[in-house]
Amino acid sequence: MENTITDRLKALTTLQVLDSKLDEIHRLRGSLPEEVSDLEDDLEGFETRKRRIEEEIKSLNNDIKERKARIEEFSGQIKKYEEQQMNVKNNREFDALRKEIEYANLEILTSEKKIRQYQDQIEQKKELLEQTTLQVDDKKRELEEKKKELEVIISDTMAEEEKLNKRIEAAAKHVEARHLNGYRKIRQNMRNGLAVVSTDRLACGGCFSIIPPQMHIELKQRSRMIYCENCGRILVDESFFNEVEEEGLPA
Ligand SMILES: [Zn+2]
User: Measured in angstroms, how far is the CA atom of residue 120 from the centroid of ligand 1?
Assistant: First the structure.
């Protein structure tokens, strides 16, 4: 546990140096992890579309099959009616059969028309399927490349990252929970991840706003926690960073 203000500031500075090293590794990976997950989403979308089109084609083919069966059924009926017409006893019976034949012919025409429509639809869907298949293949290739890139970077930096995480964990143990939470909250809010900064000439090393002279004296005295009035970062005397560097970071 921390003892004096100096210990606390030094522990926080150490933590900051380690965290900055970890940030650097993450910066190196850049947006690759996000790009990979975006590509995975895209690929899933295209694959879903492809499956849907394939199902639609299958269902249209089934419709054609049904229509063909109907045509065959009605053709059979027509043949039967024509045979019956040879043996009718009167005109009324003959006309009745003629009407049945007309109806069956109409049904056949309708089915033939439907089949042509279904075939047109299948042609269109096949074209769409071809395009979508190309898109799926493209995305797959792109994803593989990005994944490989990411794997190389991760394997290059993984050991270092693991080590850093352990050192950060160890360094954090030297800071009281409330100060640690404060530090982490500030870090989260800062785009460059810097929560502990030294002064740069007469300005805050984080936001570069001028620091009042009285604050400078207090920074040298190391007697209390000092926060930048402009950005809220923890300000420490430059010597802390020098000491941390000189003494070496905890392994
Ligand atoms: Zn500042």
Answer: 69
